[in-house]
From TrEMBL:
Transmembrane segments: 20-37
InterPro entries, alphabetized: Alkaline_phosphatase_core_sf, Sulfatase, Sulfatase_CS, Sulfatase_N
Keywords, comma-separated and alphabetical: Calcium, Hydrolase, Membrane, Metal-binding, Signal, Transmembrane, Transmembrane helix
Similarity comment: Belongs to the sulfatase family.
Source organism, top-level taxon: Eukaryota
Domain Sulfatase N-terminal: residue ranges: 47-157
Organism for this UniProt entry: Oryzias sinensis (Chinese medaka)
High-level lineage: Eukaryota, Metazoa, Chordata, Craniata, Vertebrata
Molecular-function GO term, any one: arylsulfatase activity
Entry cofactors: Ca(2+)
Name this protein carries in UniProt: Sulfatase N-terminal domain-containing protein
The UniProt record lists the keyword Cell membrane: no
Database matches in Pfam families: Sulfatase (PF00884)
Length: 170
């Protein structure tokens, strides 16, 4: 006759193998909690990024996209591309300037954000003030934002770029 296997240790007369495993798991979890609580968790470094929107530029117009070409027309862009993440597949959300800029800033097509045509200099309208822009969301997260160059989303009154975001000193 074969004797039944005996447990390696007994903690009490009514402690089953399940209870022993449960106790070991509990001790392990508490140990892990104490170990992780004692180490300071550093916040992840937020990335810096730049979005460049250039009208009528082709893929081959930038040296960074053609490393064999040594024209050095865009040395700063070449350096940014070499040091950072270069995205090489982008599709414009519209075929004209104002709707494509509005779509990039809001994440919504022109039919949804209200910008379906280019704004003339004498236009009294612009990107609707009710639209929340990507830079506004970034500012709420502590980012500094800037717009350099062509705005083309409203030239007068509250539609000017200087009226569309918070101005904070560095």
């Amino acid at each position: 006759m074969v004797e039944p296997l005996q447990p390696l240790c007994r903690f009490g007369p009514k402690m089953s193998d399940f209870h022993i495993w449960l106790l070991l798991v509990w001790v392990l979890l508490w140990t892990l909690m104490l170990l992780t609580a004692s180490h300071e968790v550093k916040p992840a470094k937020r990335p810096n990024f730049i979005i460049i929107l250039a009208d009528d530029i082709g893929w081959g117009d930038l040296d960074a996209n053609q490393p064999e070409r040594k024209s050095n027309n865009t040395p700063n862009l070449n350096l940014m591309a070499a040091q950072g993440l270069k995205m090489t597949d982008f599709h414009s959300p519209a075929s004209t300037c104002s709707p494509s800029r509005a779509a990039i800033l809001t994440g919504r097509y022109g039919l949804r954000n209200g910008v379906t045509h280019n704004f003339a200099v004498e236009s009294v309208a612009g990107l609707p003030l009710s639209e929340v822009t990507f830079p506004q969301l970034l500012q709420k997260e502590g980012y500094y934002t800037a717009m350099i160059g062509k705005w083309h989303l409203g030239h007068n009154g509250p539609y000017r770029p200087t009226k569309r975001g918070e101005v904070r000193p560095f």
